[in-house]
Write a structure and sequence with these properties.
The chain is about 45% helix and about 15% strand. The chain contains 9 helices and 8 strands. The longest helix is centred in the N-terminal third of the chain and has 18 residues, at about 60-80. It starts with a strand and ends with a helix.
Length: about 220
């Protein structure tokens, strides 16, 4: 292992409350039915536009979806960080990683600017050398291009990189990029989904994740 690429939401940070509250505010504003916070575990993972689409009836006109997407970004940016925090053990894990040769990256389907906001707010003390959210012109996960771009920037072969995430999207991204996948069970999706989509490892907590990292430091 020469590098680790982390997903952000559901992997490093529990952002579900802020996402759900922001989207529910938009739904209320446009006179649509709001959803339970738990429902959003299955709405997220494929980018903000898909989140908005998943929150709305399928027959919603596309121009209205785009309008609500724009509004969601505005609302979410103003409310960012209020309830969002790293999962238990994440800071301890990153402290340990600081003392290794392993390079750290982020690849998220969250819009790029908001991804950077979170990283600056919560992880500025840690050396993430590559930070990438969803950008125009770069296909989002599970397309491997973002992960492969990080590998290229780090001058590493993909098979030397481990990809850590909490959804089928992350497991598929790792497979598509020829990287090892580690599924975390504390995130937004059940362990069964991670297994179904070919996770090489499943971890229940950060101590188990560190054990895998330590065993593969080479």
């Amino acid at each position: 292992m020469k590098a680790i690429i982390f997903d952000l939401d559901g992997t490093l940070i529990n952002s579900l409350d802020d996402i759900a509250l922001s989207m529910n505010n938009v739904l209320k504003e446009f006179d649509y039915e709001e959803h339970k916070i738990e429902d959003y575990k299955y709405f997220v993972g494929d980018g903000a536009l898909v989140l908005v689409q998943n929150s709305l009836p399928k027959e919603t006109p596309s121009h209205l979806v785009k309008q609500m997407f724009k509004r969601f970004i505005e609302v979410y940016e103003t409310g960012v960080h209020h309830n969002t925090k790293p999962y238990e053990g994440i800071y301890d894990l990153l402290e340990k990683l600081q003392n290794t040769h392993v390079k750290l990256g982020i690849l998220s389907n969250k819009p790029h600017e908001i991804t950077k906001l979170y990283m600056n707010k919560l992880f500025s003390n840690y050396d993430f050398v590559e930070i990438h959210g969803q950008k125009d012109g770069v296909t989002k996960k599970p397309d491997p291009i973002g992960a492969l771009n990080i590998a290229k920037s780090l001058n590493l072969q993909p098979e030397k990189i481990y990809f850590v995430g909490d959804t089928s999207t992350d497991m598929k991204t790792a497979k598509n990029a020829n990287m090892k996948s580690i599924g975390v069970s504390w995130g937004f999706r059940p362990k069964e989904e991670l297994i179904e989509y070919g996770a090489d490892y499943i971890v229940e907590n950060c101590e188990e994740l560190w054990d895998i990292i330590e065993e593969n430091l080479n």
